[in-house]
Amino acid sequence: MKLTVLGNTGPYPGPGGASSGYLFAAADARIALDFGSGVLANLQKSLDFTDLDMIICSHLHSDHIADLFVLRYALQEQGRQLPLYVPFAPSLDLASLYYKEVFQIKKITEKLELTRGNLQLTFKRLKHPFPDFGTKITDGATTFLYTGDTCYTPALDEFATGVDVLLCDAAFLEDNASDKHLCVKEACEIANKAGVKTLILTHLSPAEDPKKYLEKGKRHFKGNLLVTEIGKTYDIKALADL
Ligand SMILES: [Zn+2]
Ligand SMILES: [Zn+2]
Which parts of the sequence belong to the Metallo-beta-lactamase domain (predicted)? Predict the structure, then answer.
């Protein structure tokens, strides 16, 4: 199981950067987690977009879905369709995602369970102004969780328990209990409580130096700490065995 960072900032990309997007790859699966601005270009450095099996969007804020609106042209040109899992948000018109029916749009709920090869995927509603779902992926031996965007919620404590590698919203560098995002300290506390082996901080501010996230996180997290870097590929199994 490998995770490649395609975009890691929010709510917009910095110079040459990209907002949220990750490629989760295993023997039988090529799954994009979120698809923000700049993600399609970065994806194609390691994978032909027609080789994707599915896209899962944590929620429908633009910094997590922007490149779907150009990927739809690319898919149409190739005559391809792609499953797209999204939580529905009552306030957002999804009509433009139905363009030429290139996306097979399916709704994420807590009841949804997906199987792909030897992977199982489950979902949990977290807490954010738009409905956001965390995605948990396991092969039975190693478990990975991506939060999408969330502030603190006991649902995340519960969902993160038993997770080996946690890719977590840590939008705020300074301590800040907000109703939108986690701060670095909160992300670390959740990971400590859940017994996570490796915590990867993401949804970084394009205005901040990523090193500051690492410095801050190291003061609070007891395990192995990483900060996302675009283009980096992580071996999830290796990070779970530390
Ligand atoms: Zn975001
Ligand atoms: Zn958001």
Answer: 18-203
Q: Which two tokens stand for residue 41?
A: 């270009």
Q: Which ligand is nearest to the CA of 130?
A: 2
Which CATH code for domain 2-240? 3.60.15.10
C-alpha–C-alpha distance, residues 231 and 242, integer Å: 22
Find the 67 Cα to ligand 2 centroid distance in Å.
15
CA of 213 to the centre of ligand 1 (A): 17
| Nearest partner of 44 among 12, 64, 76, 18, judged by Cα | 18
- How far does the centroid of ligand 1 lie from the alpha carbon of residue 79, in Å? 30
Written as tens digits, the pLDDT of the chain (242 aa) is 999 999 999 999 999 999 999 999 999 899 999 999 999 999 999 999 999 999 999 999 999 999 999 999 999 999 999 999 999 876 667 778 888 889 999 999 999 999 999 999 999 999 999 999 999 999 999 999 999 999 999 999 999 999 999 999 999 999 988 999 999 999 999 999 999 999 999 999 999 999 999 999 999 999 999 999 999 999 999 999 98
